[in-house]
Amino acid sequence: MLIKGMTEQEIRVLQEFRRLAVESLGIAAIKAIKHPAGGGEAPALSLVDKGFLTTDGPRENFALSQKAKDFLSYDPKPEFEEAGSPVEAAAGAE
Predict the structure, then answer these.
(1) What CA–CA distance (Å, rounded) separates 71 from 67?
(2) Counted domains in the chain
(3) Which residues are CB-neighbours of 27 under 8 A, at least 6 positions away?
(4) Which residue in 44, 48, 67, 83 has the most C-beta neighbors within 10 A?
(5) What is the DSSP letter of 14?
(6) Digits of tens for pLDDT over the chain (94 positions)?
(7) Could you tell me the CATH number of the domain that includes residue 64?
């Protein structure tokens, strides 16, 4: 499921910032991100257009905007992790 109209490649770029725990990445690091399809710098440039990343003049460095930081702070959990699963409840009742 895609979030907020973003492509899988764009989400992967943002996840790389989270994985590395950094607020900025150079173009070489952006191009090195592994994508199942597509990739390169295009997803990062489209994130700039959408307001998730900012870039310097020559587009060599990309930094998270507040919008991206808010997006990355969201950490959804599946419902079954919050409340015990029926299997766990049955096992506990025995």
Answers:
(1) 6
(2) 1
(3) 41, 44, 59, 60, 61, 62
(4) 44
(5) H
(6) 457 688 888 999 999 999 999 999 999 999 998 877 767 889 999 999 999 999 998 889 999 999 999 988 887 667 765 555 455 545 555 4
(7) 1.10.10
